[in-house]
Amino acid sequence: MARIAFERLAHGYPGSSAYALKPMDMVWENAGAYALLGPSGCGKTTLLNIVSGLLRPREGRVLFDGHDVTALPTERRNVAQVFQFPVVYDTMTVRENLAFPLRNRGVPAAQARMRVEHVAGLLGLAGMLDRRARNLGADDKQKISLGRGLVRDDVAAILFDEPLTVIDPHLKWELRSRLKELHRQVPVTMIYVTHDQTEALTFADRVVVMSEGEVVQVGTPEALFERPAHSFVGHFIGSPGMNFLPCAVEGDAALLPGGHRISLPRAYGPLTGKVELGIRPEFAALAQEGLPVTLRRIEDLGRRRIARVELQGVPFAATLPEGMVVPAEPRLALDPARLHVYADGRLVEGRG
To answer: How many independent structural domains does the chain possess?
Structure first.
């Protein structure tokens, strides 16, 4: 296990003065489960490659347990990696594939056998240990890749780069759940790269949300949902994402388009830049009383219904309460305790 720290870490690629990874200071604690979440091109894999040693940063340092490893190659960092596409030896059995990292390190045969059988049991591979890998499907091959990372008990960290991409959708939930359970049983630092919010929020204790090379928020899944520190996090987390309404803020009130005035749970000083009021669809509902809106359509998502409305021309998603008949003149009710104010995309704290 390792405590991984970044000190003023940043990276840019040759021929460009722009940052592919903007300067950051961050710590990942021993035995933590972290997810790097964001859209393609946001810097997730760049950061993972810097941790693994495949890439040397242009600026700053990487520390494992306080030791500077910035210049060390991958083989000297003692990390295990699981990639998007499974890397297995088709001519070997499942048992031989799992034992390969241990054999390379001279682990005694009896100890290696016990470790392989333990990890195989955790991954659901116990019944196929003596089968050749070439006869297995992509999902079982990826389980082998996961197992080769988990079978070692001396790794500083296990790095997962989009490991479930090739897995059938109906098996993804099972593997995500297994990974979460594995982390409880195998206390090792795990870093999981994904663009899928469900994967990140299911697996990780703390999620690192990235956008355009910048870490915009690090927090628990609950914190990302309930109190996004950046409008990007509000948009990216949740389905549908957070609503944002342009407004002006005066003390503890927000003035919306059309002259509507809403009381806020906190008071704010003078704000500059682009000011918006944010609230998630889960905390806004069609109602008999509230802000007048124009209904555009109803989306039935199975367990709930979402009303797509417009408030003074601004698109808005709200919950349609179960059993409610849409009124002829629909209104929008907002939970005041769930309202957040953003200035130029950043959450403004306000006063009590």
So the answer is: 2
Domain containing residue 54: 4-236
> Residue 293 is part of a domain; what is its CATH number?
2.40.50.140
For the stretch 97-114, pLDDT in tens is 999 999 988 999 999 999
Residue 297 carries which side chain, given as an amino acid letter?
R
Of 176, 208, 236, which closes a domain?
236
Secondary structure (3-state) at 191: strand
Determine the Cα–Cα distance for residues 350 and 30; give it in Å rounded to an integer.
Answer: 34
Mean pLDDT of the chain: 92
pLDDT tens track for 59-95: 999 999 999 999 999 989 999 888 888 889 999 999 9
Helix boundaries (H) for the chain:
44-52, 94-104, 109-123, 138-150, 169-185, 197-203, 221-226, 231-236
CA dist 168 and 161 (Å) reads 17
